[in-house]
Design brief:
The complex is a heterodimer. Chain A is an alpha+beta fold. Chain A has six helices and ten strands, in the order αααββαββαββαββββ. The chains are: A alpha+beta, B alpha+beta.
Amino acid sequence: MSPLPASRRGWLKAAGASVLGLVLAGCDKIAESPKVVNVLASAEGLSRRVQRLLQSRRSLAPEFSEAAISSDFRANGSTNPQDADYLTLVAGNFADWRLVVDGLVDQPLSLTMAQVRALPSRTQITRHDCVEGWSSIAKWSGARLAPLLALAKLKPSARYIVFHCADTLDPNAPGDHGKYYESFDMIDAMHPQTILAYDMNGAPLGVPHGAPLRLRAERHLGYKQAKYILRIEAVATLDQISGGKGGFWPDRGYEWYAGI
Amino acid sequence: MTDQALPLNPSPPQGASPPRDLKPPGAVPRPHKILVRRHSLAVRLTHWVNVISLLFLLLSGLQIFNAHPALYWGAKSTFAIPWLAMGASEHNGMLVGETVIGPLHFNTTGLFGASKVHGAWQARGFPAWLTIPSERYLALGRRWHFFFAWLFAINGFIYLATGLISGHLKRDLTPTLDQLRPRHVWHEIVEHARLRFPMGEEARRYNVLQKGAYAGVALVVLPLMVLTGMTMSPSLDASFPVLLQVFGGRQSARSIHFICANLIVAFVVVHLIMVVISGLWNNLRSMITGRYAIEVEDPKEIQA
């Protein structure tokens, strides 16, 4: 058989490519249809329930030796926020920074960094697992969240703790929906390894890693570890906050329960 | 359903070699086809649920891999020295895809590292036609992956439980002592290489190569997929730190997960080829209705 003339070969290639394109477009239509995604999303509740069933509430994420610390810990998401308020804080070396604790609490707080550093603390060398698939290890020191919440006297109606951040990760989102935020329920908020970290590897947190204060909740993926924290709010439901799914990435399709 | 033998198509197939493991030709046996029960309902159902789950797990898994197309050994990522990576670089305005495996570098433009999406070149690990969805969309890839991961794990549990209770694992997948004799194993390899498959009584059971392949996949590789998948969950690592010890850390678990996925793809390719050349319709029927045709000299001699 003689080879096809170049033009016909080109036509066949183009035809093949467009058939493949149509098939892919059809697949994507199914893969992304809201009904299908809703069914698929039911797996998140199953994962959360089964993982919670299998674990003790206080089971600790693995901790490592100093030797295991990564020399190449990757900074992801916002690494240099350009929000005006945050730039002012950076310019003042965070002297005017305050941590606000409010919402469903009997004793709202506004703490200086010195006051945060005076709170009951914990140091842990843990693995940070990015949802993309990579892992890095670092030593974190910070205020344990549980005693801080006790200080603020949570109301019984409080079911979630929301972490409001200084950085805008999606400048195109309407209103303040582009601001980063995250949330946990009480099981993870009260976990002994859930800390508000101010030191990384023995030095104050740098801007790429969330200065001056970031969350570490070690049984969850990286996007739950909110950086640049300004305010901690106790709430009964997550529906009214930003996109309503409990976090910047959950509002964009990622699981709120990120233990998997 | 009963185990009665149904005579069918008494004429011998043309071009077929004489049946092995039968009495030497003397009385000129008349081969008959009979249908025997091969696969139980549990095996058939779990097989097809597996087919669907593994297909979606593979395609969504490649989407997840594409979010960070590099693999490492140990607990953490050593970003500068992955043992496997798919990357893209620009040369004279053209995107070049490169796959690195240890010290080896391959130009894989168009397939791995850089490929066309809707006519435009893009840096991506696996190409758009191999991922769910085709565009880069990690969140949706994870939704697909974990839904079918649950289906796959539950299905696998049902398979193993029913296989243990019914004796399927012991009877059908465990090689007998006589099958394990080196001479017999070598004989089977040679016969397979010649594409001559067991007939007659021997065709009633899996040969030693089939048993090895099926047991290796069902009892080793597929369970490894579940366990290494679990090891990548930070929450399960807190509950079962032993997983990290067994697999040598989370990044090792991710690497083993990827290698096992490749082994499954290789198994499926060989499996499909063997299914086609050893009798597509007979094999398909046996995995749908449970009935498999074998040739025997005289159907009356066969004990049900």
